[in-house]
Amino acid sequence: MRQIRTAVPETVDRAIHKALALVPADRFSSASGFADALIGSGPAASTTVAAPAGRTHEARRRTGMLVALGALAVIGLFVGIRRLGSTPTLRQTGALGARETVVLADFVNRTRDSTLAATLTDAFRVDLGQSDAVQLVEPEQVASTLTQMQRIAEGPLDLRSAREVAQRQGVKAVVTGEIGSAGAGYVLSAAVVNAADGRALTAVRTTAADDRHLIGALDELSARLRERIGESLSRVRSTPPLEQVTTGSLEALRKYSAALRAGWEAADWERAIVLLQEATAIDTSFAMGYQLTAVAIGNSGGALSRQIGPQTSAYLHRNRLPAFERYQVTSYYQILVEGDMERAIEAARLGFEEDRTRGARRLGSLLGRAGRCEEADSLFEIAIEKNQPWNVAWYLGKAGCALRRGQVAVAKTTLARLERAIPRSPYIKVIEARLWAARGELDSAIEVLSELRSKETGNPRVPDFAALLQARASEGRGRITDAERYLHEHAAASQARRLPANQLVDAVRLAELALRYHRRPDQAIRTVQQALRQVPLDSLPPVDRPYLAVARFWAEVGRPAEARRLVAAYERAVPEGVRRGQGGAQAAVTATLALAEHRPTDAITAARTWNRSWDENLPTTSGLYELAQAFEQAGEPDSAMAAYRQLVDAPGYGSLEAASYAFAPAWRRLAELYEERGQRAEGIDAYGRFAALWKDADPSLQPAVREVRQRMAALAGEH
Predict the structure, then answer these.
(1) d(Cα 328, Cα 321) in Å, to the nearest integer?
(2) Quick one: which of 189, 227, 183, 187 has its CA closest to 83?
(3) Whole-number CA gyration radius for the chain
(4) Backbone angles phi, psi at 603, to 5 degrees
(5) What is the DSSP string of 384-433?
């Protein structure tokens, strides 16, 4: 039973017990509120304290304040002791930062005064905005997200919309409020709601006697909510933010974001395609969903015809998009469908001006692909700074640019950064293999790729891609039997994945091996003819038909009429935009055909176009071997030697993307030209490079290695 001294008025007793309440939200929110209660003028007063005779109102007020100050000193001690034994807030434990981010929904109005809800929401926003307990998503961010949701950004933000905004922003919770009538007064309530499932995490309530007490009641409501918000949010699981792209469907956006992670975290682009098809079925106008579908199909090794359809759908819906997304869609369309690199870069640059972080991804990727690596490098860094699973693409771009410029150390550092940021990414082994190849250590590259294939059996695209790289590296080392085995494995995988165009290209590659190393043109021709019977060109969509790969083979095997027939069919069947984007492949056919017909001038022009098919500032090794052969046909040995030398000295020597078939014959022919000129030291070195490259070549190629070593010995004995 509570004992009260008779000298202590009941009003003061009640005020002190309220100040010492166990639940923080039940205490006074300020010292002035406590003082008002002590002198009987605050909401806590229920009795009147009589003043001694002769005391004025001012004296009574001073007495009350003195009592309050004295009581506060005692209360401070008890509150401090009580807090030591209470559950610490999330901020105190350090589990959350000082200001947890939340979305504020507009107050729900259940009174006759239609202006109250908006007024209270604005006041509540100001109060919460000054708190160190929470941080509100800015109204501009809310409006931008509502635009992506294809909803009007004006008017009240209801709880349902606020929850969706929070989920798209990766925010845990929503704060919502309500005001209702209670006789002449009002009832105010506020709650923190889990954005994911709508569950109320905590709620507070207070009353106001009339209009004059509304703001005071709102202050009390806010104070109670701020005290409780830390512990409540500690129980909410953090979820990664959804991508900021335009769709009216939250479920479609979830599938889109999941597809990005499936593709870049696990390289599971097949799973990504399924998720994206589900997303675009939900929202049939989801432009960015269609675009990512096209990207996913391309990354999975899917046919070009399957990519063009969704990318065209994205482009047709572009006018409904905000500026940044519109430029992104336009950029992808220009490169994939129109084959126009410069216009694609121009659109990507406009997107970068709208959003530097997201825009850096696309612009950097295109500039890197175009060989403008110095400019692309800084953009890759901007994109990498925003730590996301799909940053692996920008690490790949940065490492690729470094290798093209011969900066092996930079590529190695980039690989180390990728391993720290995304340690489980299967693309780590791809970069590692390219690093070994850039150092000329093709055996190590093959070993890394074998490890990659053994670990990624659940994802067909990665081992298939690795098999192609292994075939190229093995060809460079003269191990043609191994190269053939890898190509057969890739062809079998292509058949299993229903990629008939890939089967045809693999048959052409096998035929080229028979032609170049086994000197069996008849066998090579039979291989291609059999593949064409199994997969006729006209059974494929026009853009998927490998006209150029087959035409180049016919030119190389000495059947120029067949090559010309296929080139003509290609020009008739394939749209101009797609052909524009395949300029390098067209130049390769033209150069090979001109060499076969002994037209060196035309071959030189075409080989140079092939070599600089994207950018003149950073030529690749492609076409350099054919350029050197054309110069030899033209009777220009000095130019031929320069082209051979450029090939073998190119940045990233031995790169898996380079003309792996060309390095060994280029070293041998260069050595022969040095020998003819009497440059013994240079000849010995070039012969030695050839012998080292093919030291473990197939037995059928070992006579060539022995002959080269004999010539080296002969040159050395002429001193």
Answers:
(1) 10
(2) 227
(3) 37
(4) -65, -40
(5) HHS--GGGHHHHHHHHHHHHHTT-HHHHHHHHHHHHHHSTT-THHHHHHH
For the entire predicted model, the pTM comes to 0.74
Domain boundary among 55, 86, 117: 86
* Residue 161 φ/ψ region, left for φ over 0, alpha for ψ in the -120 to 50 degree band, beta for the rest: alpha
Asked if residue 386 and residue 285 are part of one domain, the reply reads: yes
Torsion of CA 401, 403, 405, 406, to 10 degrees: 160
Which of 386, 458, 391, 403 shows the shortest CA–CA distance to 427? 391
- Among the candidates 86, 104, 121, a domain finishes at 86
Q: How many helices (H) and strands (E) does the chain have?
A: 34, 6
- Report yes or no on 598 lying in a domain: no
Q: State the burial class of residue 313 (Cβ atoms within 10 Å of its Cβ: 0-12, 13-18, 19+).
A: buried
Taking the C-alpha atoms of residue 358 and residue 366, their distance in angstroms, rounded to an integer, is 14
What are the structure tokens assigned to 564, written together? 């010309």
Quote the longest CA-to-CA distance of the chain.
Answer: 133
Q: What is the mean pLDDT of each run of 10 residues along the chain (719 residues)?
A: 49 59 54 56 38 44 44 41 41 50 90 83 78 80 86 82 88 90 88 88 88 82 78 61 87 91 83 95 96 93 94 95 96 95 96 91 88 86 72 83 83 88 82 84 89 73 85 93 95 90 95 94 96 96 97 96 97 96 93 96 95 60 92 97 90 61 94 95 96 95 96 83
Per the CB < 8 A criterion, the answer to whether 551 and 591 are in contact is: no
Helix (H, G, I), strand (E, B) or coil at 380: helix
User: How many C-beta neighbours within 10 Å does residue 572 have?
Assistant: 9
Q: Is the CB of residue 338 less than 8 Å from the CB of residue 350?
A: no
Q: What type of residue is 44?
A: A
Q: Is residue 507 part of a domain?
A: no
